[in-house]
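Table S4 entry, Sugar ABC transporter permease.
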Amino acid sequence: MASSSHTGRPNKLFRNLNAKIASIPMVLTAMVIFLGGTVWTVVYSFTNSRLLPRANFIGFEQYERLWDAPRWIISIQNLAIYGILSLIFSIVIGFVLAALMDQKIRFENAFRTIFLYPFALSFIVTGLVWQWILNPDFGVQSIVRSLGWETFSFNPLYNSDIVIYGILIAGLWQGTGLVMCLLLAGLRGIDEDIWKASRVDGIPMWRTYLFIIIPMMRPVFITTLVIITSGIVRLYDLVVAQTSGGPGIASEVPAKYVYDYMFQAQNLGQGFAASTMMLLTVAIVIIPWAYLEFGGKKRG
C-alpha cells in the first residue's frame, strides 16, 4: 500500500505536463510584471517621488496628504454613490431582463443582441454618445421642450449636485446587457424539474424566483458582482468622455485622480498612494470572493 501511494504522487505531478509547461510564461509574466509592478507601486507610495521615482522614503506622508485633499474625498464619495447604485440597478434590471428572456420569447436572439450591443462599445464612445443625449441644447431636454413642455429641465451633466447620476445612466446602459447574459446563463442551468414541481405545488412564480431560483444561482451572482465591482473601481473613461471631472471637480473619481497626479501634476508619490488605495479596494472585493468560491469547495 505504501509503495502504491508513493508511485501515485509522481503521476499526479506529471499529469497534463504539456499544459503546465505551456503555462510557465503566463505565470512568470504574472509574477514579474503584475505582482512586481504592484509591489513597486506600494513601495514608492511611501516616497516623495515627483517627475521620476526616487527612493526617498517619507513614511505615510503621501497618504496623509491624500486623505486631506478635498478632491480625493469627492472622488471617493462619487465612486461610492456610483458603485452602490450601479450594483443595485444593474443586478435588478439585468435579472429582470434575464427572467423575461428565459420565458422562451420570440426573437430572443435579436433581443439578446440588442441588449448586449452597448457592451461591445468602448467607454469613450458610450460617454460621448450620452454626452450628446444629455446635452440640454440638442438632447433630451431640447426634444421634450420642442414637444410643448417649455419648462422641462434635464441637464444632469451640467449640475454639480447630480452629475454623477448622469454618468451612472451611461454606465448602466452599457453594462446591464452583460449582467443579463451572465444571469441568463445561470437561469438556463436550472433544472426544468424544479419549475414543474413548483407549478404542481401551486407556488407563485415570484416566490419560486425569490426563494428557490436565486439561492441556487449564488455562484453566478457572486461572479457577476465581482465583475461589476472591478469595473466600478476602474471607472475612468466614462467620466473623461462625459465631463472630464466637471463641473469643477464634482464628478472626479479615483482613477482620474491617479492619472492626473501621475502624468499631469508630475507627482508620482501621490499617484502611487492613490493607486495603492484603489488596489486595497480591489483586494477587499477579490479576497472574500476567492474564499467563497474556492475555500468553501475545499472544505466540502
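The CA atoms of residues 244 and 251 lie 8 Å apart.
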